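Appendix C: a fully annotated inverse folding record. The material below is reproduced so that readers can follow the format used throughout the book. The structure is listed first as tokens, followed by the designed sequence.
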């Protein structure tokens, strides 16, 4: 993901100051390797399914009208 040092420190501070009991990490990186916080970090995976094709329709329209 390319987190810079300042971004990591900001994220750590945000998590530390929160009342969160744990962090759910759905990012493509192993957040627990780069962020050191007292809360446990739970890595999760997810899949996206464009039911009905709405996102595909919007993207097609965007590309059709903006990419020349």
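Designed amino acids, in order:
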């Amino acid at each position: 993901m390319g987190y810079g040092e300042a971004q990591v420190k900001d994220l750590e501070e945000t998590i530390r100051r929160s009342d969160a009991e744990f962090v759910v990490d759905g990012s493509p990186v192993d957040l627990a390797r780069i962020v050191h916080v007292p809360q446990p970090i739970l890595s999760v995976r997810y899949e996206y399914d464009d039911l009905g094709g709405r996102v595909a329709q919007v993207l097609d329209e965007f590309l059709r009208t903006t990419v020349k």
